[in-house]
Amino acid sequence: MHKLPPRALEYLNAIARYKTLRKAAARLNVNPSAVSRLLSQLEESLLLPLWDRTNSRNPITPAGEELLQYYRKMCASEQATLSRLDDMLNLRSGEVRIAVGEGIIGDLISSPLQSFLKKHKDIQLTVEMAGAQDAVSLLEEEHIDFALTYASANHPKLHCHLETQHPLELIVPPGHELTQLAGPATFKSVVKYPIALIDKSTGMGRLVTLAEELNHFKLTPSLRTNSVSALKNYVMSGLGISFMPRLTIWEEIEQGKIDVVPMDNPVFAKAKVCVLSLEGRELTLAAQALLDHLSETMRFLSDT
Question: Where are the beta strands (DSSP E) in the chain?
Answer without folding.
Answer: 94-100, 123-129, 146-150, 158-165, 168-172, 196-198, 223-225, 242-245, 259-261, 272-278
